[in-house]
Amino acid sequence: MRSFRLCPLALLLAVTLSLPGQAAPLSNRRVLPSVVDPPTVFDSPLPASRPVSADWFSDAVFIGDSRTEELLAAKLFPAGLALTQMGLNVRDVRSDAVFSWNGGRATLRQMLEGSSYSKVYLMLGFHEASWMDGEDFYTEYSLLIDELRSILPGVPIYLQTLLPVTVSRSAVRGPDNALLAEQNALLARLAQAKQVYLVRVDACFTETNGALAPDLSSDGFHLAVQGNARWFQYLRTHTIGS
Questions:
Q1: DSSP symbol at 105
Q2: If you count Cβ atoms within 10 Å of the first and of the last residue's Cβ in the chain, which end, N or C, has fewer?
Q3: CA 10 to CA 79: how far, in whole Å?
């Protein structure tokens, strides 16, 4: 839907011409609710929106690694299609036959071509953060988005930021939280450049120390039951067209 915005001067003139007296006092002016449907813009993360039902995700494709796999295994909502694999990275998901299908292996295109899914959720970038430089990561993710659009033209893409890990995990195994924050900065740039919706799921998991709270994780990386519930709650309150 096309929207138009009046500049302050034009708005003031419109009010002056349409009303015989002065503008309405502040006490009589309409106050917008604090949570509204998010605009269809791509220069910032999706703001909070009215919560959707679990069934809203029944025609969604989820692409990700074992974190996404465990989110879907929690059965908090009925996902349309799970394209997940332990250790999945942004390069292999586009170029290799990595998904199990009919007793064999299939590519991303083979799994999605001709389907009627109406939204795609992505969370990739954790595993390759330790060995793929930022420029290659940005390029590979951009190519993945292009591939998805060629397979599912016009379908909204929700690009999720990467969740942090606990302090103890960050200290002993890479990638650490500082590197994950750099990956998320690249994802924010990518979302704006490729016109996809940025979902800042890391925002509801990152403590003041930049890490994941231990009670939300089962092993420092994967989420515990309450962590998956929090993730789902964030997804259902950050959508377009709800």
A1: E
A2: N
A3: 47
